[in-house]
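S., here's the first fold you wanted:
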Amino acid sequence: MQKALFALGLSAVAAVSFAGLAAADDRPATSAERANVGAVLKAAGYASWGKIEYDRDDRKFEVDNARHANGRVYDIDIRGGRIIKRELD
């Protein structure tokens, strides 16, 4: 019984550790990157947005809560100065 609980505890610690590593692949956008992403969003009709992060693995910017002029809110992915994905929030 104790061995099973110990193994379960190790599994939980490993899962949390791997989740932390995955999150470490994202970093906050620099001020220059935020300005570039903001220009792309404004050109596409977005009026405001939340957090902007750069995903190193997928080489894209992820924008949370981008509010379009139509009033809808999206999560946006941007790569190479273009919106590659938008998902209704």
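And the second, which I think is the more interesting of the pair:
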Amino acid sequence: MIPGGGQPNMQQLLQQAQKMQQDLAKAQEELARTDVDGQAGGGLVKATVNGSGELRGLVIDPKAVDPEDTETLADLIVAAVQAANENAQQLQQEKLGPLAQGLGGMPGLPF
């Protein structure tokens, strides 16, 4: 039986929400410090983003550089960055998914 005539303890709910917000903030900070890689062209172009999706590095193998065909190089760069961002999104889901689900539906929270 729930004390208070079946009403949930608001103080407990608020404490749980605050803890989940703190856990979420901690996970977001951890993501921002975590680097994730993506590549294209069989590794000719490698992009590194942090867990938040911010581009942190780009490595281009000299074999990918053809002055007569810069469009292919541009496509490889875009593909590598997209791959890195997809990996970052997957990491976000792993780290933040359970926390965001726990906070979902609570008024005033951005989920």
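Why I say that: Strands lie at 35-40, 45-50, 55-60. Helices lie at 10-33, 70-103.

Talk tomorrow,
H.
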